Amino acid sequence: MNSIYLDHAASTPVHPEAVQEMMKVMTGQFGNASSVHTFGRSAKRTVSSARDRIAKLLSCQPDELVFTAGGTESDNLAIFGALSATENAGKHIITSSIEHHAVLHACEELEKMGYRITYLPVDTTGRVRVEDVQNALTEDTVLISIMYANNEVGTVQPIREIGELAKSRGILFHVDAVQALGAIPISCRDLPVDLMSFSAHKINGPQGVGALYVRRGVYLSPRLHGGLQEKKRRAGTENMAGIAGFGKAVEIASAHLEERRDHDLMLRQTFIRLLEQELGQDSFIINGHPSEFLPHILNISFPETDTETLLMNLDMEGIAAASGSACTSGSLEVSHVLQAMKLPQNVLHSAIRFSFGLGNTTEDMEYTAQKIATILRRLRNRS
Ligand SMILES: *Cc1c(COP(=O)(O)O)cnc(C)c1O
């Protein structure tokens, strides 16, 4: 049976060169980067060299990067860490209703702690309006957290404009750039952003490692207390192999960014064209923004069916796609992102996210489009 992975927005295969880098570290090194002996110094060099490498590619200083256990921790560290460092400044936060749960659930926690949160709406393409951010600002606003690009529909947000607004008011600006990394060229120096979250496993690096960019001068109080690692911003022995693999993954992603973009765009266009041929233009709806999107994320509704049925049937044909957000305990919850986009019920309940990446081919698109047509025909005949 075919095995086609179209869920790269959830996690990606680790690039062989990143695996190699990690193997080299895991088999050849075992010191603690905090130890002063030769083994420790060697471990420290491994971590530093990955940090230098990533900093160079993201146009920031090495000491502006804090290694974490992934995107979720980076988001939490950014939000809680920056707020507790500005404790008496204000109690209002602006975010959007389409953030990843790592941000949304952190904000819900903050509400319990006495913060007031504005969850901005989005338009039907999944975009935050800059004027909505402006209108939400108060004297009490201390933090704005808006994602670079959405993980369910791929819509890219007006980060620069929002950042400039935040900067002019002296408000901290956090950006979850987990999906943008490797898809959009990112320069921390050029963006009006104070904190930016990254994760390795969305860019063909290992799971369980990521980074938070913290602009120099932005104070961050640690969430994990312990050793002095990461300049006292994140205690705990470094995930040395993971960090080395992350470094390699960022290097590969940066070197092949244009190439990857072109390839993903080609796959996307091919897939849409094939669906049009197989199903007719009126049988599916593309969710998201028509031009401001990440090429690797394609969210489509097939109003004839429902998400769960189609996903299960695709899985039986060896095709792995996803509903917007990962399903919890086997039951599909309607995506908070599509809901915020105020899509009609039948569109909401029949959305599938196809996300492309390393290893996907035109043949995968052909096979998938054909199978979708077969499945829909079968379901139609049954009802
Ligand atoms: C995957 C993802 C995260 C979480 O990253 P982990 O490394 O899996 O914790 C956060 N934000 C976005 C936009 C994501 O896609």
Number of alpha- plus pi-helical segments = 13
Give the names of the bound compounds: pyridoxal-5'-phosphate
Shape: globular
Classify the secondary structure makeup into a structural class: alpha/beta
Low-pLDDT stretches: none
Instruction: Give, in spatial order, the strands making up the sheet with the most strands.
Output: 2-8-7-6-5-3-4
Structure, explained:
This protein has 383 residues and is of the alpha/beta class. The protein is 42% helix and 13% strand. It contains 13 helices and twelve strands. It has helices at 16-28, 38-57, 71-84, 101-112, 130-136, 159-169, 229-232, 240-255, 257-279, 307-316, 336-340, 345-348, 362-382, and strands at 4-5, 65-68, 92-96, 116-120, 141-145, 172-176, 195-199, 210-214, 285-287, 297-301, 319-320, 351-355. β3 (92-96), α4 and β4 form a beta-alpha-beta unit. The longest helix is centred in the C-terminal third of the chain and has 23 residues, at 257-279. The chain is globular and about 70 Å long. The structure holds pyridoxal-5'-phosphate (PLP).
